[in-house]
Amino acid sequence: MDNKKLEALCKSIHREPVVQ
């Protein structure tokens, strides 16, 4: 997996937390 993609995903989740 791409480290950058994981980082971007992490930042995205932190920016707008997803409520499950």
From TrEMBL:
Protein name stated in the entry: Uncharacterized protein
Protein source organism: Nymphaea colorata
